[in-house]
Amino acid sequence: MRLNKLLAQSVEDDAEDGAETKLDDETRRERIQQLCSSSSEDGYANLDGISSDSVNEKEWVSRLFSVVKHILHACPWWRTGDQRWMDRFLKVSSLLDSASQAQTQSLVDLLMLLPAVEGVCDAAGLMDNTLWAEAKPTWLAQIRFYVLGPRSEAELNGTAPLPQVDDSIPAIHDILLAPELVEPLQDLNTRRAANLVNQFLRCLAQDPNRMSQGGFQLCTGIAYGAAGIQTGETVALIKRGLAKTYARYIDRKSRPKSWIDVSTLRPTERCVVLSTAYRAGEVFSARGRDDERLPPCAWMMLLLIDPPEVTRPMVSRNRATPQEEEKKHERRLIIAPLYAGGDIADYVLPWNKYQDAQNDPWNAGDRIMMQFEGVETADESKGLIAFDNGLYYLGRVRSVRRSTPDNWETVMIVFDSDPDDYMWVSPWEIVAAPEQYHDPVHEAPAPVDPEKLLSPEDLALVARCKSVARHLGWPAGDNKREFDKYHKESFGGAPPQPPIFCRTPLNVHRVFLEAMHLGGYESVTRNKLWKTVARTLGRDLTSQTSASFALRKAYEKCLYPLRNF
Prior knowledge:
Elements: H1 5-8, H2 25-40, H3 57-73, H4 83-100, H5 107-123, H6 129-148, H7 153-157, H8 172-176, H9 190-202, E1 210-211, H10 213-220, E2 234-238, H11 239-249, E3 268-279, E4 297-304, H12 322-331, E5 333-339, E6 348-350, H13 351-359, E7 367-370, E8 384-387, E9 390-400, E10 411-415, E11 423-425, E12 430-432, H14 456-471, H15 480-490, E13 500-501, E14 504-505, H16 508-517, H17 521-526, H18 530-535, H19 547-558
Helix pairs in contact: 3-4, 3-5, 3-9, 4-5, 5-6, 5-9, 14-16
Protein backbone atom coordinates (compact mmCIF):
# COMPACT_ATOMS: atom_id res chain seq x y z
CA MET A 1 0.00 0.00 0.00
CA ARG A 2 1.35 3.43 -0.89
CA LEU A 3 1.65 5.99 1.89
CA ASN A 4 -0.64 8.95 1.70
CA LYS A 5 1.97 11.69 1.31
CA LEU A 6 0.07 14.58 2.85
CA LEU A 7 -1.10 12.71 5.95
CA ALA A 8 2.35 11.13 6.21
CA GLN A 9 3.68 14.42 7.49
CA SER A 10 1.65 13.95 10.67
CA VAL A 11 4.00 11.02 11.42
CA GLU A 12 6.67 13.54 12.43
CA ASP A 13 6.68 15.49 15.70
CA ASP A 14 5.14 18.97 15.79
CA ALA A 15 8.46 20.76 15.60
CA GLU A 16 8.92 24.31 14.38
CA ASP A 17 8.88 24.65 10.61
CA GLY A 18 12.31 23.94 9.22
CA ALA A 19 13.51 22.27 12.41
CA GLU A 20 14.99 18.85 12.05
CA THR A 21 12.77 16.09 13.45
CA LYS A 22 14.64 13.22 15.05
CA LEU A 23 12.87 9.88 15.16
CA ASP A 24 14.54 6.53 15.41
CA ASP A 25 13.76 4.06 12.63
CA GLU A 26 11.60 1.79 14.79
CA THR A 27 9.40 4.65 16.04
CA ARG A 28 8.98 6.05 12.54
CA ARG A 29 8.07 2.59 11.19
CA GLU A 30 5.43 2.10 13.91
CA ARG A 31 3.89 5.50 13.23
CA ILE A 32 3.82 4.91 9.48
CA GLN A 33 2.13 1.54 9.96
CA GLN A 34 -0.42 3.08 12.32
CA LEU A 35 -1.13 5.93 9.89
CA CYS A 36 -1.46 3.58 6.91
CA SER A 37 -3.89 1.43 8.89
CA SER A 38 -6.07 4.40 9.83
CA SER A 39 -5.98 5.91 6.34
CA SER A 40 -6.88 2.63 4.72
CA GLU A 41 -10.22 2.77 6.51
CA ASP A 42 -11.18 5.64 4.22
CA GLY A 43 -10.96 4.60 0.60
CA TYR A 44 -11.67 8.18 -0.47
CA ALA A 45 -8.43 9.65 0.87
CA ASN A 46 -7.25 10.22 -2.69
CA LEU A 47 -3.80 11.68 -2.08
CA ASP A 48 -1.61 8.86 -3.37
CA GLY A 49 1.38 9.45 -5.61
CA ILE A 50 1.97 13.11 -4.78
CA SER A 51 5.52 14.38 -4.81
CA SER A 52 6.13 16.81 -1.96
CA ASP A 53 8.80 18.50 -4.07
CA SER A 54 6.42 19.37 -6.91
CA VAL A 55 3.24 20.42 -5.06
CA ASN A 56 2.86 23.87 -3.51
CA GLU A 57 1.01 24.79 -0.32
CA LYS A 58 -2.15 25.72 -2.22
CA GLU A 59 -2.29 22.27 -3.78
CA TRP A 60 -1.81 20.61 -0.38
CA VAL A 61 -4.78 22.56 1.00
CA SER A 62 -6.90 21.58 -2.00
CA ARG A 63 -6.04 17.93 -1.52
CA LEU A 64 -6.92 18.10 2.16
CA PHE A 65 -10.31 19.59 1.29
CA SER A 66 -10.80 16.62 -1.05
CA VAL A 67 -10.09 14.18 1.78
CA VAL A 68 -12.71 15.75 4.04
CA LYS A 69 -15.27 15.90 1.24
CA HIS A 70 -14.75 12.23 0.49
CA ILE A 71 -15.19 11.35 4.17
CA LEU A 72 -18.51 13.18 4.19
CA HIS A 73 -19.76 11.67 0.94
CA ALA A 74 -18.96 8.18 2.26
CA CYS A 75 -21.79 8.50 4.79
CA PRO A 76 -24.60 6.05 3.89
CA TRP A 77 -27.07 8.64 2.59
CA TRP A 78 -28.26 6.16 -0.05
CA ARG A 79 -30.01 3.96 2.51
CA THR A 80 -31.29 6.42 5.08
CA GLY A 81 -34.93 7.34 5.55
CA ASP A 82 -34.16 10.05 8.11
CA GLN A 83 -34.99 13.30 6.35
CA ARG A 84 -33.59 15.48 9.14
CA TRP A 85 -30.24 13.69 8.83
CA MET A 86 -30.40 14.15 5.06
CA ASP A 87 -31.04 17.89 5.49
CA ARG A 88 -28.02 18.13 7.77
CA PHE A 89 -25.88 16.15 5.33
CA LEU A 90 -26.87 18.42 2.45
CA LYS A 91 -26.22 21.59 4.45
CA VAL A 92 -22.75 20.47 5.53
CA SER A 93 -21.98 19.28 2.00
CA SER A 94 -23.03 22.64 0.57
CA LEU A 95 -20.91 24.59 3.08
CA LEU A 96 -17.91 22.37 2.41
CA ASP A 97 -18.29 22.77 -1.35
CA SER A 98 -18.46 26.56 -1.00
CA ALA A 99 -15.35 26.63 1.17
CA SER A 100 -13.43 24.36 -1.20
CA GLN A 101 -14.42 26.46 -4.24
CA ALA A 102 -13.43 29.77 -2.67
CA GLN A 103 -10.84 31.78 -4.55
CA THR A 104 -8.45 31.28 -1.63
CA GLN A 105 -9.04 28.07 0.27
CA SER A 106 -8.61 28.52 4.02
CA LEU A 107 -7.46 25.89 6.49
CA VAL A 108 -9.41 27.76 9.19
CA ASP A 109 -12.62 27.38 7.15
CA LEU A 110 -11.86 23.68 6.73
CA LEU A 111 -11.32 23.14 10.47
CA MET A 112 -14.46 25.15 11.25
CA LEU A 113 -16.50 22.63 9.25
CA LEU A 114 -14.68 19.52 10.44
CA PRO A 115 -16.84 19.05 13.61
CA ALA A 116 -19.94 19.38 11.40
CA VAL A 117 -18.63 16.55 9.21
CA GLU A 118 -17.91 14.54 12.37
CA GLY A 119 -21.46 15.19 13.59
CA VAL A 120 -22.94 13.83 10.35
CA CYS A 121 -20.75 10.73 10.57
CA ASP A 122 -21.61 10.23 14.24
CA ALA A 123 -25.37 10.54 13.57
CA ALA A 124 -24.96 7.87 10.87
CA GLY A 125 -23.33 5.51 13.38
CA LEU A 126 -19.90 5.60 11.72
CA MET A 127 -17.79 6.62 14.72
CA ASP A 128 -15.99 4.21 17.02
CA ASN A 129 -17.36 5.75 20.20
CA THR A 130 -15.11 3.68 22.48
CA LEU A 131 -12.06 5.56 21.17
CA TRP A 132 -13.70 8.80 20.13
CA ALA A 133 -15.37 9.64 23.44
CA GLU A 134 -11.95 10.08 25.02
CA ALA A 135 -10.23 11.74 22.06
CA LYS A 136 -12.96 14.18 20.94
CA PRO A 137 -12.65 16.87 23.69
CA THR A 138 -8.93 17.37 23.01
CA TRP A 139 -9.59 17.30 19.27
CA LEU A 140 -12.24 20.03 19.61
CA ALA A 141 -9.94 22.06 21.86
CA GLN A 142 -7.24 22.05 19.18
CA ILE A 143 -9.75 23.10 16.52
CA ARG A 144 -11.05 25.88 18.78
CA PHE A 145 -7.53 27.23 19.25
CA TYR A 146 -6.99 27.49 15.47
CA VAL A 147 -10.49 28.77 14.62
CA LEU A 148 -11.15 31.22 17.50
CA GLY A 149 -7.70 31.66 18.99
CA PRO A 150 -6.68 31.23 22.64
CA ARG A 151 -9.09 32.44 25.32
CA SER A 152 -8.34 35.71 27.05
CA GLU A 153 -7.94 35.98 30.80
CA ALA A 154 -11.39 37.58 30.98
CA GLU A 155 -12.94 34.68 29.09
CA LEU A 156 -11.22 32.18 31.36
CA ASN A 157 -12.53 34.03 34.42
CA GLY A 158 -16.04 34.20 32.96
CA THR A 159 -16.12 38.01 32.98
CA ALA A 160 -16.15 38.39 29.18
CA PRO A 161 -18.84 37.18 26.78
CA LEU A 162 -18.18 34.34 24.41
CA PRO A 163 -16.95 35.27 20.94
CA GLN A 164 -19.56 35.89 18.27
CA VAL A 165 -19.92 32.96 15.85
CA ASP A 166 -21.97 32.18 12.76
CA ASP A 167 -24.92 30.14 14.05
CA SER A 168 -25.66 28.88 10.52
CA ILE A 169 -22.59 26.62 10.69
CA PRO A 170 -23.53 23.22 12.17
CA ALA A 171 -21.58 22.22 15.30
CA ILE A 172 -20.04 25.70 15.66
CA HIS A 173 -21.10 25.75 19.33
CA ASP A 174 -19.21 22.49 19.90
CA ILE A 175 -16.10 24.45 18.91
CA LEU A 176 -17.11 27.47 20.97
CA LEU A 177 -17.61 25.45 24.17
CA ALA A 178 -14.55 23.21 23.76
CA PRO A 179 -12.13 23.08 26.73
CA GLU A 180 -9.04 25.26 26.83
CA LEU A 181 -5.67 23.68 26.09
CA VAL A 182 -3.02 23.65 28.80
CA GLU A 183 -0.34 24.82 26.36
CA PRO A 184 -0.82 26.94 23.22
CA LEU A 185 -0.33 25.29 19.85
CA GLN A 186 2.11 26.27 17.15
CA ASP A 187 0.94 28.16 14.07
CA LEU A 188 -1.50 26.37 11.79
CA ASN A 189 -0.11 24.82 8.63
CA THR A 190 -1.23 22.05 6.29
CA ARG A 191 0.64 19.37 8.20
CA ARG A 192 -1.09 20.23 11.47
CA ALA A 193 -4.49 20.49 9.80
CA ALA A 194 -3.86 17.06 8.25
CA ASN A 195 -2.99 15.74 11.70
CA LEU A 196 -6.40 16.87 13.00
CA VAL A 197 -8.12 15.23 10.04
CA ASN A 198 -6.19 12.06 10.71
CA GLN A 199 -7.22 12.01 14.39
CA PHE A 200 -10.81 11.97 13.15
CA LEU A 201 -10.10 9.31 10.53
CA ARG A 202 -8.60 6.95 13.06
CA CYS A 203 -11.89 6.82 15.00
CA LEU A 204 -14.10 6.17 11.99
CA ALA A 205 -15.53 2.65 12.10
CA GLN A 206 -14.00 0.38 9.50
CA ASP A 207 -16.01 -0.06 6.32
CA PRO A 208 -14.57 -2.78 4.04
CA ASN A 209 -17.07 -1.98 1.28
CA ARG A 210 -15.97 1.63 0.82
CA MET A 211 -14.29 2.24 -2.54
CA SER A 212 -12.62 5.17 -4.24
CA GLN A 213 -13.56 6.48 -7.67
CA GLY A 214 -10.35 4.99 -9.05
CA GLY A 215 -11.13 1.63 -7.46
CA PHE A 216 -14.57 1.57 -9.05
CA GLN A 217 -13.03 2.44 -12.41
CA LEU A 218 -10.65 -0.50 -12.06
CA CYS A 219 -13.67 -2.78 -11.51
CA THR A 220 -15.25 -1.67 -14.76
CA GLY A 221 -12.12 -1.05 -16.84
CA ILE A 222 -13.94 1.88 -18.49
CA ALA A 223 -12.97 5.51 -17.90
CA TYR A 224 -16.33 6.99 -18.89
CA GLY A 225 -19.75 6.10 -17.49
CA ALA A 226 -20.36 6.21 -13.73
CA ALA A 227 -16.63 6.22 -12.96
CA GLY A 228 -16.09 9.38 -15.00
CA ILE A 229 -18.95 11.56 -13.66
CA GLN A 230 -17.93 14.26 -11.19
CA THR A 231 -19.79 15.91 -8.32
CA GLY A 232 -21.45 19.12 -9.52
CA GLU A 233 -21.79 17.91 -13.11
CA THR A 234 -25.08 18.29 -15.00
CA VAL A 235 -26.31 14.90 -16.19
CA ALA A 236 -29.20 13.23 -17.95
CA LEU A 237 -31.18 10.64 -15.98
CA ILE A 238 -33.09 8.06 -18.04
CA LYS A 239 -36.23 6.98 -16.21
CA ARG A 240 -36.40 3.49 -17.78
CA GLY A 241 -32.86 2.67 -16.71
CA LEU A 242 -33.50 3.81 -13.14
CA ALA A 243 -36.73 1.79 -12.92
CA LYS A 244 -35.00 -1.30 -14.34
CA THR A 245 -32.16 -0.98 -11.81
CA TYR A 246 -34.56 -0.62 -8.89
CA ALA A 247 -36.56 -3.63 -10.04
CA ARG A 248 -33.49 -5.81 -10.51
CA TYR A 249 -31.34 -4.91 -7.52
CA ILE A 250 -33.34 -3.17 -4.80
CA ASP A 251 -36.32 -4.74 -3.11
CA ARG A 252 -39.22 -2.28 -2.79
CA LYS A 253 -39.47 -2.77 0.98
CA SER A 254 -35.81 -1.85 1.45
CA ARG A 255 -36.08 1.48 -0.39
CA PRO A 256 -36.11 4.38 2.12
CA LYS A 257 -39.35 6.30 2.21
CA SER A 258 -37.44 9.49 1.35
CA TRP A 259 -36.86 8.27 -2.22
CA ILE A 260 -38.99 9.93 -4.91
CA ASP A 261 -41.36 7.59 -6.74
CA VAL A 262 -39.89 6.80 -10.17
CA SER A 263 -43.33 7.08 -11.77
CA THR A 264 -43.32 10.86 -11.13
CA LEU A 265 -40.32 11.42 -13.41
CA ARG A 266 -40.16 12.47 -17.05
CA PRO A 267 -38.65 9.95 -19.52
CA THR A 268 -35.43 12.02 -19.31
CA GLU A 269 -34.58 14.40 -16.47
CA ARG A 270 -31.84 17.01 -16.14
CA CYS A 271 -30.01 16.68 -12.82
CA VAL A 272 -26.99 17.91 -10.90
CA VAL A 273 -24.80 15.37 -9.10
CA LEU A 274 -24.68 16.30 -5.41
CA SER A 275 -22.77 13.27 -4.12
CA THR A 276 -21.35 9.94 -5.26
CA ALA A 277 -20.39 7.01 -3.05
CA TYR A 278 -18.55 4.03 -4.52
CA ARG A 279 -19.26 0.69 -2.87
CA ALA A 280 -17.82 -2.79 -3.25
CA GLY A 281 -20.18 -5.75 -3.65
CA GLU A 282 -22.66 -5.82 -0.76
CA VAL A 283 -25.19 -8.37 0.40
CA PHE A 284 -28.80 -7.18 0.51
CA SER A 285 -30.75 -9.44 2.84
CA ALA A 286 -34.02 -7.94 1.65
CA ARG A 287 -33.51 -9.69 -1.66
CA GLY A 288 -33.46 -13.05 0.09
CA ARG A 289 -30.03 -13.96 -1.33
CA ASP A 290 -27.72 -13.63 1.63
CA ASP A 291 -25.17 -15.94 0.04
CA GLU A 292 -24.62 -13.72 -3.01
CA ARG A 293 -23.00 -10.33 -3.36
CA LEU A 294 -24.18 -7.64 -5.72
CA PRO A 295 -21.69 -6.07 -8.15
CA PRO A 296 -19.77 -2.92 -7.11
CA CYS A 297 -22.01 0.12 -7.26
CA ALA A 298 -21.71 3.90 -7.70
CA TRP A 299 -24.52 5.49 -5.68
CA MET A 300 -25.38 8.94 -7.01
CA MET A 301 -27.47 11.60 -5.29
CA LEU A 302 -29.04 13.71 -8.01
CA LEU A 303 -30.93 17.00 -7.71
CA LEU A 304 -33.66 17.37 -10.34
CA ILE A 305 -33.28 20.72 -12.10
CA ASP A 306 -36.68 21.09 -13.75
CA PRO A 307 -39.92 21.37 -11.75
CA PRO A 308 -42.42 18.51 -12.05
CA GLU A 309 -44.71 18.62 -15.08
CA VAL A 310 -47.87 18.14 -12.98
CA THR A 311 -48.77 18.40 -9.33
CA ARG A 312 -49.31 14.90 -8.03
CA PRO A 313 -51.35 14.04 -4.94
CA MET A 314 -49.18 13.39 -1.91
CA VAL A 315 -50.18 9.75 -1.51
CA SER A 316 -48.32 8.02 1.31
CA ARG A 317 -46.32 5.05 0.12
CA ASN A 318 -43.89 2.94 2.07
CA ARG A 319 -45.03 4.38 5.45
CA ALA A 320 -44.33 8.05 4.59
CA THR A 321 -46.58 10.68 6.19
CA PRO A 322 -48.17 13.43 4.04
CA GLN A 323 -45.68 15.93 5.54
CA GLU A 324 -42.77 13.66 4.64
CA GLU A 325 -44.11 13.23 1.11
CA GLU A 326 -44.36 16.99 0.71
CA LYS A 327 -40.83 17.50 1.99
CA LYS A 328 -39.53 14.74 -0.24
CA HIS A 329 -40.96 16.31 -3.39
CA GLU A 330 -39.75 19.77 -2.36
CA ARG A 331 -36.20 18.45 -2.26
CA ARG A 332 -36.43 16.89 -5.73
CA LEU A 333 -33.67 14.40 -4.88
CA ILE A 334 -33.13 11.11 -6.72
CA ILE A 335 -30.95 8.23 -5.55
CA ALA A 336 -29.49 6.47 -8.60
CA PRO A 337 -27.42 3.28 -8.14
CA LEU A 338 -25.21 2.34 -11.10
CA TYR A 339 -23.94 -1.22 -10.81
CA ALA A 340 -20.82 -2.53 -12.51
CA GLY A 341 -21.29 -5.50 -14.78
CA GLY A 342 -22.78 -3.93 -17.89
CA ASP A 343 -26.12 -5.78 -17.78
CA ILE A 344 -28.05 -2.47 -17.70
CA ALA A 345 -27.16 0.24 -20.21
CA ASP A 346 -25.83 3.57 -18.91
CA TYR A 347 -28.78 5.64 -17.71
CA VAL A 348 -26.87 8.49 -16.04
CA LEU A 349 -24.57 10.37 -18.41
CA PRO A 350 -23.26 13.92 -18.94
CA TRP A 351 -26.01 16.17 -20.30
CA ASN A 352 -23.89 17.39 -23.24
CA LYS A 353 -23.22 13.78 -24.26
CA TYR A 354 -26.96 13.07 -24.21
CA GLN A 355 -27.61 16.19 -26.31
CA ASP A 356 -24.95 15.15 -28.84
CA ALA A 357 -26.67 11.76 -29.24
CA GLN A 358 -29.97 13.57 -29.87
CA ASN A 359 -28.54 15.99 -32.40
CA ASP A 360 -26.31 13.57 -34.32
CA PRO A 361 -28.16 10.22 -34.52
CA TRP A 362 -26.69 6.99 -35.85
CA ASN A 363 -27.78 5.48 -39.16
CA ALA A 364 -28.00 1.88 -40.37
CA GLY A 365 -24.66 0.76 -41.79
CA ASP A 366 -22.47 3.04 -39.64
CA ARG A 367 -19.25 1.41 -38.46
CA ILE A 368 -18.93 1.74 -34.69
CA MET A 369 -16.97 0.45 -31.74
CA MET A 370 -17.93 -0.08 -28.10
CA GLN A 371 -16.15 -0.74 -24.83
CA PHE A 372 -17.13 -3.56 -22.48
CA GLU A 373 -16.12 -4.28 -18.91
CA GLY A 374 -13.58 -6.99 -18.13
CA VAL A 375 -11.71 -6.89 -21.47
CA GLU A 376 -7.92 -7.10 -21.05
CA THR A 377 -6.23 -7.72 -24.44
CA ALA A 378 -6.88 -6.84 -28.08
CA ASP A 379 -7.51 -9.56 -30.68
CA GLU A 380 -8.52 -8.43 -34.16
CA SER A 381 -9.57 -11.97 -35.08
CA LYS A 382 -12.38 -11.45 -32.55
CA GLY A 383 -13.14 -7.92 -33.70
CA LEU A 384 -11.43 -6.48 -30.62
CA ILE A 385 -9.06 -3.57 -31.24
CA ALA A 386 -6.86 -1.28 -29.14
CA PHE A 387 -7.51 2.42 -29.72
CA ASP A 388 -6.73 5.59 -27.76
CA ASN A 389 -5.68 3.72 -24.59
CA GLY A 390 -8.84 1.60 -24.62
CA LEU A 391 -10.09 -1.75 -25.94
CA TYR A 392 -13.13 -1.78 -28.23
CA TYR A 393 -15.32 -4.29 -30.02
CA LEU A 394 -15.94 -3.37 -33.67
CA GLY A 395 -19.45 -3.56 -35.07
CA ARG A 396 -22.03 -2.12 -37.44
CA VAL A 397 -25.39 -0.41 -36.88
CA ARG A 398 -28.18 -2.65 -38.23
CA SER A 399 -31.19 -0.47 -37.38
CA VAL A 400 -32.30 2.48 -35.23
CA ARG A 401 -35.56 3.09 -33.38
CA ARG A 402 -36.41 6.79 -33.62
CA SER A 403 -39.78 7.04 -31.87
CA THR A 404 -38.71 6.65 -28.23
CA PRO A 405 -38.72 9.77 -25.99
CA ASP A 406 -35.47 8.94 -24.18
CA ASN A 407 -33.25 7.25 -26.84
CA TRP A 408 -32.35 4.51 -24.37
CA GLU A 409 -31.34 1.23 -26.07
CA THR A 410 -32.50 2.37 -29.52
CA VAL A 411 -29.56 1.24 -31.67
CA MET A 412 -29.25 -2.36 -32.87
CA ILE A 413 -25.62 -3.42 -33.24
CA VAL A 414 -24.11 -6.49 -34.89
CA PHE A 415 -20.54 -7.00 -33.70
CA ASP A 416 -17.83 -8.37 -35.98
CA SER A 417 -17.06 -10.99 -33.34
CA ASP A 418 -20.59 -12.43 -33.48
CA PRO A 419 -22.28 -11.62 -36.83
CA ASP A 420 -25.16 -14.03 -36.18
CA ASP A 421 -26.42 -12.16 -33.13
CA TYR A 422 -27.31 -8.56 -32.26
CA MET A 423 -27.48 -6.26 -29.26
CA TRP A 424 -29.62 -3.18 -28.48
CA VAL A 425 -27.48 -0.38 -27.04
CA SER A 426 -27.94 3.30 -26.26
CA PRO A 427 -26.49 5.78 -28.80
CA TRP A 428 -24.14 7.32 -26.23
CA GLU A 429 -22.50 3.95 -25.50
CA ILE A 430 -20.91 3.66 -28.94
CA VAL A 431 -18.45 5.79 -30.93
CA ALA A 432 -17.47 5.89 -34.59
CA ALA A 433 -14.83 3.33 -35.52
CA PRO A 434 -11.46 4.65 -36.77
CA GLU A 435 -11.27 5.40 -40.48
CA GLN A 436 -9.21 2.31 -41.29
CA TYR A 437 -12.09 0.10 -40.11
CA HIS A 438 -14.75 1.84 -42.21
CA ASP A 439 -16.04 0.67 -45.59
CA PRO A 440 -14.71 -1.02 -47.58
CA VAL A 441 -15.19 -3.44 -44.72
CA HIS A 442 -12.02 -3.92 -42.72
CA GLU A 443 -10.63 -7.36 -43.34
CA ALA A 444 -9.53 -8.66 -39.97
CA PRO A 445 -7.44 -11.81 -39.73
CA ALA A 446 -9.58 -14.61 -41.06
CA PRO A 447 -11.36 -16.60 -38.34
CA VAL A 448 -10.84 -20.32 -38.09
CA ASP A 449 -13.07 -22.15 -40.55
CA PRO A 450 -15.21 -24.57 -38.48
CA GLU A 451 -15.34 -26.96 -41.44
CA LYS A 452 -11.60 -27.27 -41.84
CA LEU A 453 -9.81 -30.44 -40.92
CA LEU A 454 -8.67 -29.99 -37.34
CA SER A 455 -5.01 -30.46 -36.57
CA PRO A 456 -3.90 -33.21 -34.20
CA GLU A 457 -3.35 -30.54 -31.55
CA ASP A 458 -6.93 -29.24 -32.00
CA LEU A 459 -8.33 -32.76 -31.75
CA ALA A 460 -6.27 -33.47 -28.63
CA LEU A 461 -7.53 -30.25 -27.01
CA VAL A 462 -11.18 -31.10 -27.76
CA ALA A 463 -10.70 -34.59 -26.35
CA ARG A 464 -9.06 -33.26 -23.20
CA CYS A 465 -11.86 -30.73 -22.65
CA LYS A 466 -14.52 -33.42 -22.97
CA SER A 467 -12.56 -35.56 -20.53
CA VAL A 468 -12.59 -32.70 -18.02
CA ALA A 469 -16.36 -32.41 -18.40
CA ARG A 470 -16.76 -36.12 -17.66
CA HIS A 471 -14.39 -35.84 -14.70
CA LEU A 472 -16.54 -33.07 -13.23
CA GLY A 473 -19.63 -35.25 -13.58
CA TRP A 474 -21.28 -33.88 -16.72
CA PRO A 475 -24.22 -33.44 -17.09
CA ALA A 476 -25.14 -33.40 -13.38
CA GLY A 477 -21.87 -31.73 -12.32
CA ASP A 478 -21.40 -33.81 -9.17
CA ASN A 479 -17.81 -32.66 -8.55
CA LYS A 480 -18.64 -28.99 -7.98
CA ARG A 481 -16.37 -28.81 -4.96
CA GLU A 482 -13.36 -29.66 -7.12
CA PHE A 483 -14.42 -27.04 -9.68
CA ASP A 484 -14.80 -24.38 -6.96
CA LYS A 485 -11.35 -25.18 -5.61
CA TYR A 486 -9.62 -24.94 -8.99
CA HIS A 487 -11.66 -21.86 -9.95
CA LYS A 488 -10.41 -20.09 -6.85
CA GLU A 489 -6.80 -21.19 -7.40
CA SER A 490 -6.85 -20.03 -11.03
CA PHE A 491 -7.55 -16.46 -9.90
CA GLY A 492 -5.08 -16.41 -7.02
CA GLY A 493 -7.75 -17.03 -4.41
CA ALA A 494 -10.11 -14.22 -5.50
CA PRO A 495 -12.22 -15.20 -8.54
CA PRO A 496 -14.33 -12.38 -10.03
CA GLN A 497 -17.96 -12.04 -9.06
CA PRO A 498 -20.24 -13.74 -11.62
CA PRO A 499 -21.90 -11.14 -13.86
CA ILE A 500 -25.66 -10.81 -14.11
CA PHE A 501 -27.08 -12.91 -16.96
CA CYS A 502 -30.82 -13.11 -17.63
CA ARG A 503 -31.49 -11.14 -14.43
CA THR A 504 -29.60 -13.53 -12.13
CA PRO A 505 -25.92 -14.09 -11.27
CA LEU A 506 -24.38 -16.34 -13.92
CA ASN A 507 -23.99 -20.02 -12.95
CA VAL A 508 -20.30 -20.25 -13.89
CA HIS A 509 -20.08 -23.92 -12.89
CA ARG A 510 -22.80 -24.92 -15.35
CA VAL A 511 -21.36 -22.75 -18.14
CA PHE A 512 -17.87 -24.21 -17.69
CA LEU A 513 -19.23 -27.77 -17.63
CA GLU A 514 -21.23 -27.34 -20.85
CA ALA A 515 -18.47 -25.48 -22.68
CA MET A 516 -15.94 -28.21 -21.84
CA HIS A 517 -18.40 -30.90 -22.91
CA LEU A 518 -18.65 -29.17 -26.31
CA GLY A 519 -14.86 -29.14 -26.71
CA GLY A 520 -13.77 -26.04 -24.80
CA TYR A 521 -13.74 -22.32 -25.48
CA GLU A 522 -12.11 -22.49 -28.94
CA SER A 523 -14.45 -25.24 -30.14
CA VAL A 524 -17.58 -23.47 -28.89
CA THR A 525 -16.49 -20.21 -30.51
CA ARG A 526 -15.44 -21.89 -33.77
CA ASN A 527 -18.77 -23.70 -34.10
CA LYS A 528 -20.94 -20.80 -32.83
CA LEU A 529 -22.34 -22.79 -29.92
CA TRP A 530 -22.51 -20.10 -27.24
CA LYS A 531 -26.27 -19.82 -27.51
CA THR A 532 -26.47 -23.59 -27.10
CA VAL A 533 -24.50 -23.24 -23.86
CA ALA A 534 -26.79 -20.38 -22.77
CA ARG A 535 -29.90 -22.51 -23.25
CA THR A 536 -28.60 -25.08 -20.75
CA LEU A 537 -28.98 -22.47 -18.00
CA GLY A 538 -32.74 -22.85 -18.23
CA ARG A 539 -33.39 -19.11 -18.48
CA ASP A 540 -35.65 -17.09 -20.72
CA LEU A 541 -33.16 -15.71 -23.23
CA THR A 542 -35.63 -13.16 -24.60
CA SER A 543 -34.69 -10.86 -21.69
CA GLN A 544 -30.98 -11.06 -22.55
CA THR A 545 -29.89 -9.10 -25.61
CA SER A 546 -27.13 -10.81 -27.57
CA ALA A 547 -27.08 -13.84 -25.29
CA SER A 548 -24.24 -15.61 -27.08
CA PHE A 549 -22.04 -12.50 -27.15
CA ALA A 550 -22.71 -11.69 -23.49
CA LEU A 551 -22.08 -15.27 -22.39
CA ARG A 552 -18.81 -15.52 -24.29
CA LYS A 553 -17.62 -12.24 -22.82
CA ALA A 554 -18.54 -13.47 -19.32
CA TYR A 555 -16.66 -16.73 -19.96
CA GLU A 556 -13.53 -14.84 -21.00
CA LYS A 557 -13.67 -12.80 -17.80
CA CYS A 558 -14.62 -15.48 -15.27
CA LEU A 559 -13.59 -18.86 -16.71
CA TYR A 560 -10.97 -18.60 -19.44
CA PRO A 561 -8.00 -18.98 -17.02
CA LEU A 562 -9.36 -22.47 -16.21
CA ARG A 563 -8.47 -23.72 -19.71
CA ASN A 564 -5.56 -25.72 -18.25
CA PHE A 565 -7.77 -27.60 -15.79
